[in-house]
Amino acid sequence: MYSAFPNAMPRDYRIDFFRGLALISIFVNHIPGNFFSNFTHRNFGLSDAAEIFVLLAGVSAALAYFPRFASGQMLNATGRVGKRIGTLYVAHLAAMAAGFAIYAGAALYLDAPGLMLPDERHWIVEQPVKALAGIGMLTYQTGNFNILPMYMVMMAMLPLIMLLARVRLGLALAASFGFWMVVNIYRLTVPNYPGQGGWFFNPLAWQFLFTIGFVGGVMLRRGEKLPFSRGLYGFALFYLVAASVLVLGAHWDKFPVLPEWFWLSGFNKTWVGVFRLLHVLSLAYVVIFSPIPAFLSRWLDEGNWIVRLGRHTLPVFWLGTLLSVAGHIVRETVFGLPNDPLLTGRSFLVDVVLIGAGLAGLFALAAYLDWMRSAAKRRPAAPEAAEAAIVPSRLVAAE
Description:
The protein is built from 15 helices and no strands.
């Protein structure tokens, strides 16, 4: 049984840094066909920024909520989780409204009605009442707007994860793994509405990666180190190299047909297959025991530009989603560039402007949010608050 964590922990800028890198990668990858998407790590292995994002979300959840939960303030911690879910819900609804407005406005202005058809967007045109119901219930799954619903469901699972972890970390991990197995084998998912099938990011499967990150976050908060194994490190390194060869050489057809939850074909993100899961964990293990963390500890501070992105994950992700929607429209509809990241003079120039302007917008937002927070700390107390603070001291002196 866990007791209260004894000491406060300073903010670990390395977590913010890697979250910032994941946000950059997500933004770049969400503009299909751009040249710079050739260089995100999904091109060299079996996982991408989504796995990094969820793994670090678990770490952050452990640091933010579990110390309070473990110290006996379970209702308080659970209430904070609920408040965060509410924030995510409002952000998701606002993102979908703004995203559909961008697509609809472009469809009208550019006389391109086809913009409202791909990625399940056609439901808002063909079945608007059902589509609105689906948006409110989080079951309307459409491209670029399906990560936050997954995150909300995993956050809703967090109190149960923390309850099991309060007994023993291994119990939370074992329960999550068992549930992941059942979900994958029996194809359990959250239903899509008004479309068919299940969610693109099935939170019932992704919760295992989230829980792994949570366990890692608890260990970090307690000052425990992940045990090092030379054999395991060698296997992880070999696996990363083999996965890179597999992806770069497109050797998918050289393997036997296996269940989708176990193997994978391309980048199916629904079930978090074994090989995909092993890839992100191998990557994390190799990075953790490389010189990178020690170097980042000496180099990073709160003013680092990438750290700033990771410190403001939700607003940066929100803006990045809308900028990627706009970038996609500009690239394919305005300039008529193919969904093929080839290096040609015209497409390269467009990609430089789109990606550069988008990243500049994200960095500017993060810098502005930092400035707002600093300004709030420097702002003098309101006269009423200052008077309220003075009066009690006067009364004490009079007595």
